[in-house]
Write a structure and sequence with these properties.
Blueprint lengths: L3 E3 L8 E3 L17 E4 L7 E2 L13 E2 L7 E3 L6 E4 L5
Parallel strand pairs: 3-7
Antiparallel strand pairs: 1-2, 4-5, 6-7
């Protein structure tokens, strides 16, 4: 079954994609914080982080944090620090 529906307006020759997911999901606003602390079990690190709204965010970018313990997203400027505490 296709996830696209033909428009109900006959003058429009468009296909509209059906929405998926839940409206009531408890997600965080993407890149709302400026400094994120991450654990080694969250690697490889990417921005935006899992569990954030993606509709108003930037494309996913992987950030090298393993060697220096710090990384900064080139899109939104969010800073990431690698935690030394066990997860």
């Amino acid at each position: 079954m296709s996830s696209y529906n033909r428009s109900l307006n006959p003058k429009e020759n468009l296909y509209v994609r059906e929405r998926t997911g839940k409206v009531d999901q408890e997600l965080e606003v993407a890149n709302a914080e400026q400094v994120y602390r991450v654990n080694r079990d969250m690697l490889p690190l990417h921005c935006p982080m899992p569990g954030t709204y993606l509709w108003n965010s930037h494309p996913k970018v992987y950030l090298p944090i393993e060697q220096t313990g710090e990384a900064k997203c080139p899109y939104c400027g969010a800073s990431y620090e690698l935690s030394t505490m066990p997860s």
